[in-house]
Design goal:
two-stranded antiparallel sheet; single chain; alpha+beta; 98 residues
Length: 98
């Protein structure tokens, strides 16, 4: 499942702030509290990106912040949370390697 969110202001450059903005204040995207949800919430409280298992990669990957609609290299200051392959689909310079 891909989460599409509106760009988040620069002042919210933490995973907790991004999550809150992207989810509209909801604390659980998946609808149930399992160990993955609890681990990801703890990661985000610590300022780290949420993670998931990606079978295409064969391992765990972390969510990234994609600077949109203006890339960071062009002075962009807003971003959207994306998984690596979704980030690569919108950024020609992003190559996840799998």
């Amino acid at each position: 499942m891909t989460v599409q969110a509106a760009p988040v202001a620069v002042c919210q450059q933490t995973w907790l702030g991004t999550r809150c903005a992207a989810l509209g204040g909801r604390t659980c995207l998946w609808g149930h509290w399992d160990s993955r949800v609890i681990n990801n919430l703890a990661r985000m409280r610590a300022g780290n990106a949420p993670q998931r298992f990606n079978p295409d990669k064969g391992g765990t990957e972390s969510m990234e912040l994609s600077h949109e609609p203006i890339p960071a290299r062009d002075g962009g200051t807003q971003f959207v949370p994306r998984w690596p392959q979704d980030h690569a689909a919108v950024d020609p310079y992003r190559r996840p390697g799998y």
